[in-house]
Amino acid sequence: MVKKQITKNDEFKGSFLGRVKTKTGKTYFIVKSSYIFNLNKSATAESQIFVYNYKNEFVGYYYLSNINQLPWKLFHNKLYFNNKDCREKIIVDFTTGIPNAINLKCNGVDDLIELK
After folding, report:
1. Between vectors from CA 105 to CA 86 and to CA 93, what angle results, nearest 5°?
2. Are 30 and 19 spatial neighbours (Cβ–Cβ below 8 Å)?
3. What do you get for the CA distance between the two ends of the chain, in Å?
């Protein structure tokens, strides 16, 4: 985990979650990050899940609408989400490849996040 105070009002957090290996043998690295600004007033966050290939080349990212949507672990090619505001426990499987979109459903409402 990297945590850096950018200014007295801004903060960056980033974590390498691990690597996934697909059935076809491709390896990807998964990183989560959040940039929090306006810490002293009304804190706002921009959060992403970044995907890199085995050469550490950028593949794409999922832009998340809030920090609670960030995954908490990667285990056996599966990304685990635990948004405390939601009933659902979301698991995204990367075994067959990097999904074009993930569904972070919350309390019965779909929330499709596209890979950009």
Report:
1. 110
2. yes
3. 24
What does the mean pLDDT of the chain come to?
90
pLDDT at 42 over 80: no
Q: What is the pTM of this model?
A: 0.87
Report d(CA 28, CA 89) in Å as an integer. Answer: 23
- H/E stretch holding 17 reads strand 10-21
Which has the closest alpha carbon to 17: 36, 62, 43, 46? 62
Say how far apart CA 15 and CA 49 lie, in whole Å: 10
Record the tokens describing residue 65, joined without a space.
């609408």
